[in-house]
């Protein structure tokens, strides 16, 4: 692979070194996807969604699966979540084969209607904690409020989903997922249905949350710009069926990078890797 997965966040490591504290931040492998091919059945045939895909995600990673529509990236995320069994290959978390869904992997989808409408914001975040984590009502509410504060929605704890904007609903979904304290947070194009301004704001808030909470993220998008900003490592998947085209580092970019020439060169390079090289092969 192109990226260096064991030495994460070099900017942070350099700052730590200058202050005389411990050396570079070293991360351990958390998720291993090895030679995974995924298939689904249509009325007339079996369709291969991904072919022989391999990658590793390390603790604290913001790992992005990037590719065009139909490349199998969302199917791959669902397989990591335990909802789809690979046709071949293995998916492991902490060295254990993934054999089904679990509270150690929580998914945030792009749909706004993933919150039960009859529950308040607080109840939406607290309910999974009571069911999966076996917390008392008081413990669940306390943790739920903590994460609602993290996403800036503590003041809406008693509101119902139908009173919230699309961006606010996604923030509730993110708070609900983080409150479960999963080993890996899975996000399937969570901002795709938002307008451009709200989408950029949500990207900023996600990165701020990552700085505060330091969770591990596996993020799916078909936007090259979003991948460069949200991720510190990016896996490029070819058009259908999804095959690994390349793995790239992107830790050097932020929301302030959009107008920079090196950012635009990276966008063009990734577009070339995803489409022009594939067309040349065909």
Q: What global shape is seen?
A: globular
| Strand count | 10
Overall pLDDT score: 86
Terminal residue distance:
24 Å
Number of helices: 8
Poorly predicted regions are 4-25
Percent range for helical residues?
Answer: 25-40%
Q: In what order do the strands lie side by side in the largest sheet? A: 6-7-8-3-9-10
Question: What is the CA-atom radius of gyration, in angstroms?
Answer: 19 Å
Strand composition percent: 15-25%
- In sequence order, what are the helices and strands, one letter per element? HEEEHEEEHHHEHEHEEH
Largest sheet entry: 6 strands, mixed
**Which secondary-structure class do the elements indicate?**
alpha/beta
Overview of the structural elements:
- The chain is an alpha/beta fold and 282 residues long.
- 37% of the residues lie in helices and 23% in strands.
- Strands 6-7-8-3-9-10 form a 6-stranded mixed beta sheet, sandwiched between helices. A 4-stranded antiparallel beta sheet has the order 2-1-4-5, covered by helices on one side.
- The relative contact order is 0.16.
Question: Would you summarize the structure shown here?
Answer:
The chain has 282 residues and is of the alpha/beta class.
